[in-house]
Specification:
Layout: H1 15-30, E1 66-70, H2 71-74, H3 82-89, E2 93-94, E3 111-112, E4 120-124, E5 127-128, E6 158-164, H4 169-172, E7 179-185, E8 192-201, E9 208-219, E10 223-234, E11 263-278, E12 281-297, E13 322-340, E14 343-361, E15 376-396, E16 405-421, H5 425-428, E17 445-461, E18 466-477, E19 481-495, E20 498-509, H6 513-517, E21 520-528, E22 531-539, H7 545-549, E23 558-572, E24 575-592, E25 596-597, H8 600-607, E26 615-617, E27 619-639, E28 645-662, H9 667-671, H10 679-687, E29 692-702, E30 705-714, E31 717-719, E32 728-730, E33 733-744, E34 747-754, E35 790-798
Parallel strand pairs: 4-7, 22-26
Antiparallel strand pairs: 1-6, 2-3, 4-5, 6-7, 8-9, 8-35, 9-10, 10-11, 11-12, 12-13, 13-14, 14-15, 15-16, 16-17, 17-18, 18-19, 19-20, 20-23, 21-22, 23-24, 24-27, 25-26, 27-28, 28-29, 29-30, 30-33, 31-32, 33-34, 34-35
């Protein structure tokens, strides 16, 4: 099989509708009155640091689309999760809220431009942020990925976020295929704030409370340090349905399952500091510590296995296993930067680690009978990154150039390590702990690799109208060899009001150590012949004997080619519109295979290795895909009398991914009528996120008041199955958020409602979509969750 034609793909939005939308937006912005020409420069004049080495590049003259989100923007919703806030503010970012998904319930991934979560690079203060230890191995968006965990970074510590919506592997290395999210922390010794917040859903659950402080202090004679402390607490939500499957069950007709946000307690501590050592020499550093405890439900175990056969005497009414996870995240960056002989230079060391440990409570190991414990330590995962980096840049004067040419060079060394720690013996003995069998000693181990890279970047304004840049990067990895990436971009300004920009690049994403080595045998809910069943399932690293017996081969790097063409329209200082079309081709995309329900012959092969499972899966370079889309972003500030302000923003993203090639099926699987990359795996990668998203927001400020309103329309999406008749298409929906705040001296009081009209996604109708008899009524792919209306209030004291 090597053709997309084997998989029915959705029709793209009619071209005429796109053309009408773009035309109407251009007309609207072109018709804006000229009376506002004298207003102060808008956000388009903000100097950026992402995707450029120049010291004067701004949003409006950038050669690729850049979104700037201020700290005020990040406070415009009731959520304390950074990923959830970004999904409201960025049209191309998707953040579903999966439940009953093991570790993914505690560490939820976000997607940019419909691509895999690990194909977006996250930076903090321009430094590479480490990725999570959690591997998303259940049937959720981003299945098979282990991206950076955005929710470990406290919102109260952030000054602004720059989002580069373009491939940038030539500038930053692995992972920057869909784009780059650069989180810039607050700095300086002056001022501070203390904030308290509380909220609750309209169904009187999911109560949230938060308390944070951010303040600066003088460090030495001319230095500063800025500290952040944040505490968040959240109670669980539950939107599960009653269980009417077996009238003989003791709790027949009761709500026994939990589907919703987990119970959560999170502590974040951070510091950002700088200390001048001489006139052109600064010592700097920042650090972040995050500890998040979550309690998430697994799948309900009925009292009876068949008929009236009791599953275990320890729980005669049935039981709901609870997964108590602890995510501990640490990041430390220290560096020194200065100027010498016209060069700006920066040398730094970067350490980051993510540790995930799990206890399974309110459960049983059936193999131990009535003597089984009811709580188990299931083991841990840990991902570590250590990085040393040196950058240098300077400007050179050349005759004929309107401005100096910027040249930047650099080198980087990086070491990655991934660890799997075994759980206690009772957690994996025999049938293992129900809900999540522990990691076995045979699964445990420590895996590492290193890489080195060199890179260069040239940026020039060739004339008053034309700018261009070129970047080149070469990296060598100890486990799969070398890769070279390049990027060429340019911008031509026809008039002060209209410019075109374009970029072409190739990039890559190295297979993570987690994807190469994650191994565990546990019980999973699998759809077999349209019925959801609990099956002992093995996940095997590609180098293990079990994976090799099923046809696994070593993973290769994903390779990408990015092309973009955009227009920037600025009819007035207070108005801007950008339209950017893009195409992203990715070869050898790494996906988690389908659930291989093993026939007796293959079960016997694995049993001889001591592996007793009924199903198996592993990672593979599965697909070549093409993603095409368009981003439209506009803003308009209307001048009012006095200090009153009224502003509008709109954002639109249209995104389609198609399959160009499906990897060959291993011979051993073909012989046993199994398909490594099944229809569901393919469709999940291309259909499970909304094809489009549109938002329009208004902000009105008057007499100390600020009022914010936003409407976001999420397009339809598909929950795919191997049997096409079991696919379910979920309707588009519009979610409305409103908020108001009043400034009273040093106090700012705010209140708001997210999801004002209490919108829910369609309910699951197919058993193939893991509805389990109606107890799990909502899809994990919903881009705005399934909790309904949320009320909140905040109080901020600033100085």
């Amino acid at each position: 099989m090597d053709h997309a034609s084997n998989y029915p793909l959705p029709l793209s939005l009619p071209k005429r509708r796109n053309a009408l939308l773009v035309a109407s937006l251009i007309t609207a912005f072109s018709a804006m009155s000229a009376e506002a020409q004298e207003l102060a420069a808008s956000q388009s004049d903000t100097v950026i640091v992402t995707g450029t080495r120049s010291i004067k590049r701004t949003v409006s003259d950038s050669e690729a689309p850049i979104d700037i989100l201020t700290s005020k923007d990040l406070q415009s919703t009731g959520s304390g999760e950074l990923a959830a806030v970004l999904s409201r503010l960025l049209p191309s970012l998707n953040f579903p809220r999966p439940a009953v998904a093991d570790g993914t319930s505690a560490s939820r991934p976000a997607q940019l431009r419909g691509l895999s979560p690990d194909q977006t690079l996250v930076l903090v203060n321009g430094k590479r942020w480490h990725t999570s230890a959690v591997v998303n191995v259940n049937g959720t968006a981003g299945r098979g990925s282990s991206p950076a965990d955005l929710n470990t970074i406290p919102i109260s510590a952030i000054d602004k976020i720059e989002v580069l919506r373009d491939g940038a592997a030539a500038q930053y290395g692995s992972d920057a295929i869909a784009g780059v999210i650069n989180i810039i922390l607050k700095k300086g010794a002056d001022g501070g704030e203390v904030q308290a917040g509380i909220g609750q859903y309209s169904q009187r659950d999911g109560t949230q409370g938060s308390l944070s402080a951010n303040f600066g202090t003088v460090l030495g004679d001319r230095g500063w340090a800025r500290f952040t402390a944040e505490q968040r607490n959240q109670k669980e939500t539950n939107r599960a349905g009653a269980d009417f499957r077996n009238p003989l069950e003791p709790l027949y007709g009761k709500v026994t399952q939990v589907q919703g946000d987990p119970k959560l307690q999170q502590t974040n501590l951070g510091v950002n500091a700088s200390l001048p050592l001489a006139a052109d020499l600064d010592l700097y550093g920042f650090a972040n510590y995050s500890r998040r405890n979550t309690d998430a439900a697994a799948t309900w175990r009925t009292a009876y296995t068949t008929g009236t056969t009791l599953r275990t005497p320890l729980y005669p009414n049935g039981f709901l296993p609870n997964e108590a996870a602890t995510n501990t995240d640490v990041s430390i960056v220290a560096g020194i930067k200065g100027k010498a002989n016209g060069w700006r230079w920066d040398a730094s060391v970067n350490y980051g680690s993510s540790e995930f440990s799990l206890d399974v409570n309110n459960t049983v190991n059936l193999s131990l009978g009535a003597t089984s414990p009811t709580s188990f330590y299931a083991g841990k995962l840990k991902n570590t990154q250590t990085l040393a980096n040196f950058d240098a840049a300077r400007e050179f004067e050349f005759a004929g150039l309107s401005n100096p040419l910027t040249v930047a060079v650099g080198a980087e060394y990086r070491r990655d390590q991934y660890e799997i720690g075994a759980g206690e013996p009772n957690s994996y003995f025999g049938s293992g702990a129900q809900g999540f069998s522990g990691f076995q000693p045979s699964n445990a181990g420590s895996f590492s690799r290193h890489s080195a890279s060199i890179y260069a970047n040239i940026e020039a304004e060739l004339s008053n109208q034309l700018s261009a840049s070129f970047a080149l990067r070469h990296e060598n990895y100890s486990d799969f060899g070398s890769v070279t990436s390049g990027k060429l971009s340019g911008r031509f300004e026809f008039t002060k009001e209209f410019a075109l920009r374009a970029a072409a690049s190739n990039g890559f994403r190295a297979p993570s150590l987690a994807q190469q080595n994650y191994t565990i045998s546990t019980t999973n809910l699998i759809t077999i012949n349209g019925t959801s069943q609990l099956v002992d399932t093995g996940t095997f690293g590609v180098a293990t004997a079990a994976a090799k017996a099923l046809g696994a081969i070593p993973l290769e790097a994903e390779k990408s080619r990015n092309f973009s063409l955009g227009a920037v329209i600025q009819p007035a200082k207070n108005a801007s519109l950008s339209i950017d079309a893009y195409q992203i081709d990715i070869d050898n995309r790494i996906l988690y295979s389908g659930n291989l329900v093993l026939p007796a012959a293959l079960q016997s092969v694995l049993a001889k290795q001591g592996v007793l499972v009924g199903a198996a899966r592993y990672f593979t370079n599965a697909l070549d895909t093409r993603t095409r889309g368009v981003d439209v972003v506009g803003s308009y500030q209307i001048p009012l009398s006095g200090t009153d302000k009224l502003g509008f923003t709109l954002a639109y993203n249209r995104n389609d991914t198609t399959v160009k090639r499906v990897g060959a099926n291993p011979a051993i699987l073909t012989q046993n009528n199994l398909l490594l990359i099944d229809r569901q795996t393919v469709s999940r990668a291309i259909d499970a996120t909304p094809k489009d998203k549109f938002s329009i927001a208004a902000d009105y400020g008057f007499s100390g008041w600020s009022v914010h309103g936003q409407a976001t329309r999420y397009g339809s999406f598909v929950s795919p199955q191997n049997n096409a008749t079991l696919d379910q298409t979920y309707s588009a929906n519009t979610v409305i958020d409103i908020a108001a705040s009043y400034k009273l001296g040093k106090w700012t009081l705010s209140a708001g409602v997210d999801n004002l009209t209490d919108k829910y996604p369609d309910q699951v109708t197919s058993a193939g979509n893991l509805n389990t008899g109606g107890t799990l009524p909502y899809s994990t792919f919903s881009p705005y969750g399934f909790n309904g209306r949320y009320y909140y209030a905040k109080a901020v004291y600033t100085w």
